[in-house]
Amino acid sequence: MQQLVLATRIITYIGIGITTLFTAIFFLQIFYTFFALFIKNKRFNKTNKFNNHCIIIPAHNEAHIIGDLIKSLKAMKYPKQYFKVFVVADNCTDNTAQVALQAGADKVYERFNKQLIGPNFAVHETLLKIKDEFGDFDSFSWFDADNIVDENWLSIMNDAFNDSKKYDYFTSFRDTQNFEDNWISSAYSIEFYRLVSQVATTRSAFRNPHMVEGTGFMVRSSLLEKNNYWGKYQSMVHDTEFSFDALVNGYKGVYVDQAKFYDLQPTDWNISWKQRTRWTVGNYKLGNLINKTLFKNLFFKLEAPQKKLNYLEYIAMLTPSWLFFFTLLIINTTITALNLVLLANNIDNIGVYLGALSLPIMFIYYYLITFIMGLCVIIRQAKKIKRFSPWNKFKALITYPIFIFLNIPISMYASKNKNMKFVNTQKQRSLNTKI
């Protein structure tokens, strides 16, 4: 029995050590989310200079929805002669091109390529055509076809573009159109508020390169040229690939909180599953591309401490979440089982009782951490999301940890489907749209 007690203690210490290690790996995400509560976003001085901006929209069978975005872009309070809206109708079988032109797009390019599938390839090819036909622009911005843009978006982004620090790329506030549709759309909304606003806010405050999240971002043309007009980024998660490239090469990014656009979140479970699986498979494949550079820079290159921490964050993001989960599950199940045996043999003290609860404590710990992160989001974004009812925000907080936990089965499924090709996920405009 003494040997069992000793073994239980050793395994418990190992479990505590591994839990501490995993918490440390994910600490940055927790820290960024919490610390944003105490940071004021950078405001940019108004400029009298009007730069020429290129806005591009990759679209696949988006005729039902793209018109709203183009109309919102054309309604922006920025001189019309200083920006153009381009659409690439990518492998479309509907009338996306015609709808885009009727809505006011300056030019629509139709692309048919069944080998190179994905918006990154479409955007790369189209940017080269735009350069040949329209010459140079000062920047390029990317929007998904289901977005709607605030009328001041480009004016505010132009102010940031002309800041004396000469940032290389810019991200903006990703608001949501349909928070109140169901638990899926509200969870997506909270997660994007967290990533695009709070994490980016803290990163910008500490002058850390932050991640581009797929839409609503701007890149300086000089940087675009350096990277072959987005041709350098060929993975399924090209935005993350660009973000890692920015980290490695020291590109300066900034988050522009006052410039906002509205994203449309999935409400259908099947669409959500496909989209998140695509992201996860994309992360796995990206890991194969960058792991060598990632570990080399982390362990063998002399760089600033905050940069090293960012490399750890990429390791956490690119490692299958099921690996973390099942490691903890096996250890905590073992600890619980051993302590139940000790209790059955009348060996009882506070440590044994806590050990017997190790498995449920693991799940409670996870739920509380993610719940608190969601609560931090609701608190910080209170003014921006006051249009949503308190009851719906409370329900979203309760279900948000479940949404995040689903990364585990999704990562398991993705591990078995690593040959998955790019999948387009279409969404319908919500009847409950609030902007």
From TrEMBL:
UniProt superkingdom: Bacteria
InterPro entries, per the entry: Nucleotide-diphossugar_trans
Molecular function via GO: glycosyltransferase activity
Keyword presence, Glycosyltransferase: yes
Chain ranges passing through the membrane: 12-39, 322-344, 394-414
Family that this chain belongs to: Belongs to the glycosyltransferase 2 family.
Protein name: Hopene-associated glycosyltransferase HpnB
Organism the protein comes from: Mycoplasmopsis bovigenitalium
